[in-house]
Amino acid sequence: MSDQLLLEHRARDLGRHPAVLAEVARLEAELAGTRAGRNPDDSSDLTDYLAGLTHCCALYAANDSPDRPRVLWNLYPGAEAGLPNPDTVYKYVTVSPDHRYEITGRRGTSADLTFQVDDAGPERAGRLNRNLGLLAEPDLHVLPDGTFTITAGPDEAQGRPNHLHLPPGARRIMIRDTMSDWSQTPTSLAVRRVGGAPVVPEPGLDELADRAAAFLASAAPLWVRIPEQYNYVHPPNTLPPARPTGAGGLQSQYVTTGTFSLTDDEALVVTAGQGTASYLGFQVGSNWYVDYDYRSHTSSLTSAQAAPNPDGSYSWVIALRDPGHANWIDPVGHHEGLTLMRWQGLTAPLAPDNSPRVTRVALADLTAALPAGSPFVSTVDRKRKAAVRRWQFDRRVATLRFPHTNSG
Is the peptide bond before 203 cis (omega within 30 degrees of 0)? Predict the structure, then answer.
């Protein structure tokens, strides 16, 4: 059994533990009074949201052993928190400055790969994590055969390549593997402890369940606050100029965040440029600060998945029903929600004219609101692309859960 499947089995056991179930019941009552809990479209998602947040926190608890490190895949459909990027595979290694580690891998074909050292983070401290170190391309040294080795420990790098310093307070290494095109493959990783303090006994089920419940109690209030602080501070149906990511996010990217609010007969047109970024992605998400279904709906599209305008820019169209535009962003029946755009792998600061321009229009007036020649798509092409999207996502899941299996 792969480490991923082992951790998922443990997390499911933790999710059924009385301590976790009691915390879920408490949160269900508490969250009903939040913005999302009062919103007719979001309130019906509360049970599913809590199930996903519970499994996410239970996975962190199941992997909460710096003495016995494993590579955990988290933040995927069914285990979500923090409006994760649908194009990114998020992996975590629990670490301690008292130990030394070796991470080995084979580089996939993704657009951007980073290794970030974090402290306590949302599930422990109820706040965004503090970034304590970063190894990003092109500083990641990869051999011609695609393999690489990263060391991590309490000692400074002092010029050594592929070394992550674990300062006091370091709790985990977060790996972001971002695919601009879902035909790209994620990086394979393994980790082992190579030295340090004596190993302590592994915690039992009751102790891990208490941690999972505590993680839930800590994370849930944060993810209610974050949209108020970062999205709803701006007028609806607008996006401010892109900015470098602040606390808790990827330090080598630019982002912009906002909200949408539309009727059944309206659309929001968002047009932006890619600049020098290797990855540009746009998504909408729930007021619960999680993704809408992105396997079966185009609630996100990257520049590689989208069709460009004749001038090289990209336009995305948020609408509750198919507007016929090639880059339809589907909010899956939600009239109000969150917007987020990311630029990664920039080789120069993002120019102001690449920031988004946003226009709210009646669907009947959509063509006039788009740049000249902006692409539309036939129903046949829409269905074909949807089938490819589902297949590519399913292949990604199989690759991550069964890493030694050829999934196609």
Answer: no
Distance CA 299, CA 385 (A): 13
C-alpha 405/C-alpha 47 separation (Å) is: 33
Rounded-to-integer distance, Cα 142 and Cα 78, Å: 33
Q: How many helices (H) and strands (E) does the chain have?
A: 9, 18
| Measured torsion, CA atoms of residues 24, 37, 127, 91, in degrees rounded to the nearest 10 | 70
* pLDDT(347) > 50: yes
Whether the CB-CB separation of 52 and 79 falls below 8 Å is answered with yes
- Contact between 165 and 133 under an 8 Å Cβ cutoff? The reply is yes
Beta strand 147-153 with 163-165: parallel, antiparallel or unpaired? parallel
Bridge partners, residue 337, by sequence: 260
Residue with tokens 């619960």: 288
Cβ pair 39, 336 in contact under 8 A: yes
**DSSP structural state of residue 291:** B
Cβ(132)–Cβ(170) below 8 Å: yes
Residue 339 φ/ψ region, left for φ over 0, alpha for ψ in the -120 to 50 degree band, beta for the rest: beta
pLDDT digits (tens, 9 = 90+) for 292-321: 999 999 999 999 999 999 999 999 999 999
Burial of 43 (0-12, 13-18, 19+ CB in 10 A): middle
**Residue 311 near residue 353, CB atoms below 8 Å:** no
Which amino acid, 110?
Answer: S
Which pair of tokens denotes residue 281?
A: 């992605």
Confidence band (pLDDT; 50, 70, 90) for 120?
Answer: confident
| Of 63, 329, 303, 98, residue with least CA distance to 174 | 63
Query: Does the pLDDT value for residue 405 go beyond 50?
Result: no
3-state secondary structure of 406: coil
**What's the CA gap between 386 and 391, in Å, rounded?**
9
